[in-house]
Amino acid sequence: MTDFIPAAKPLIGDDERVAVDRVLRSGMVAQGPEVAAFEDEFSAHFVAGRPVVAVNSGTSGLHLGLLAAGVGPGDEVIVPSFTFAATANSVALTGATPVFADIEPDTFTLDPEAVAAAVSPRTKGIMPVHLYGHPARMAELSTLAEAQGVDLYEDAAQAHGAALDGAPVGTFGTFAMFSLYPTKNMTSGEGGMVATVDGEVARRVRLLRNQGMERQYENEVVGFNARMTDIHAAIGRVQLTKVDGWTQARRRNAAFLDENLRGVIVPPVADGATHVYHQYTVRVPEDRDGFVKALREEHAIGSGVYYPIPNHRLPSLAHFAPGLDLPETERAAREVVSLPVHPSLSKDDLERVVAAVVAVAGAGA
User: Fold this and answer.
1) CATH top class, domain 14-240
2) Domain 243-362: assigned CATH number
3) FRET partner for 54 with CA separation of 20 to 30 A, picked from 4, 156, 280, 296?
4) What is the reported pTM?
């Protein structure tokens, strides 16, 4: 029987287990020294020393980042519809309105021209998503935000180590959020990191994550319990020592797929962009769902469709966008398939993926 090749595979080994056991033996299980060390190490590794605050999930990171940036009722934040719902959810949870703009067909990220058309007097900020590990067009979006007098935020959930013209994602906006969910390029088991423009924004995120207090029982604002545990931070600290090697493996795997795939549209990389391939996402213009089924049932190859229903058509978010037409978003939702690219793939695995894709595409799914 042919072994199944999964679309994603978390990498958690003995080093992470040793780190967890160290924390359990210490008795310091809640937010403590491991979290503080993880914040410092993540900051130095990914965001050029910007202040970083650890939280219990990526969604919490977006929510608290927006609140710390002053987003609230009466405001609008422009977001893509082609992404996971947490992006727009986090805006809605502040009481503000998510305003959906269309994407570019090549990078699947916000189209600056569509964003410009969506700006209104109520626009507080623009929040691109560095989708699949490819950076959004931050130069154009930064220029637009400055010209319009609005903020720029970054959903970098899938983009640890991505860069644009040498500048790492997470260093462009008022804040940026990195997810540490198990299938991301690195994990802490669950969690998120909020990189901030300055110490004052970071302080507000710290207050909000910890019931509104920095010192016990001296609550300054109404806050949440969104703390990261030392157990999760210990896992993340180990993963941080490995993520660069994993990213190099992802890029090598993507290069092999680029060179050898036929019958699908492989993902282009913009000039000056460093893609970290959280997902390797191709387009299948005809019968995408049949293609996915054939890969799984005939060739034991897993894949993922991220995302089949645009946010502006979800029952939870559609009321923010009645009658909205986003043609590139709709086309991507019909056509995208993410193929295995994770670091666990062997050369034989990659050759199997290529052979399967070529066969299924050639057969018309």
Assistant:
1) alpha beta
2) 3.90.1150.10
3) 280
4) 0.96
